[in-house]
């Protein structure tokens, strides 16, 4: 699936949840009661919480890389979109 930053922004703005793989690791962006949560699978210590999708897109990182840059460069593989 060809999925980039515009797709991510659109899907998050309507409350969708996304699971994807980056560098052989699986991640999820999920809706929670306080906004959105970004987490590496099976590693609760990596959880990053944001009040809305705009804050998530401006701040979420994997290591030192912004999530938006990773999506802009299409270096992810979409696993599931809810």
TrEMBL record:
It comes from the Bacteria. This is Uncharacterized protein. It comes from Paenibacillus odorifer.
